Amino acid sequence: MKLVPKMTVTGLAALLFTAVLPRAAAAEADVKTERLWKVKCASCHGADGKGKTETGEKLGIPDMTTADWQKKVTDAEAKTAILDGFKRPDKKDGMDGYKEKLEPVQVDALVAHVRSLGK
Ligand code: HEC
Known about the structure:
Layout: H1 3-40, H2 42-45, H3 54-59, H4 67-72, H5 75-84, E1 85-86, E2 95-96, H6 104-116
Antiparallel strand pairs: 1-2
Helix pairs in contact: 1-6, 5-6
Bound molecules: heme C.
Heme C binds next to helix 2, helix 3, helix 5 and helix 6.
């Protein structure tokens, strides 16, 4: 009989370490990336990624939430755009690169964020 509560406690501790804590850390990372997106990217792309901002309209920024856009732009292309900037040859203005301004982990997190916009 004494074993039962002990096992429950161990079970709970195991659950905490394997399930709850990593998820909490991931949630915090998401919040940070969301904030980063809002500060650095949303002025053009919009908080929701639809590009319906004043600058977005002016520069013809596409809606990143559509299945079409998600299919067209690969992770590698998104990463290159964030690092080196992106400008269509037929347009005067585009996006500056963030190579000097962001850590590599932040760039990867933003690529994942861009992907999540399509879900
Ligand atoms: C000054 C406005 C501006 C800001 C700020 C901006 N972008 Fe962009 N971004 C653009 C424009 C313009 C394009 C090209 C749109 C087009 O013609 O398809 C673009 C394209 C992209 C693309 C797609 C590239 C491709 O291959 O089609 C990604 C991914 C992207 N931006 C991510 C980001 C992220 C992440 C940030 C923040 C770190 C950011 N952008 C900040 C203007 C901006």
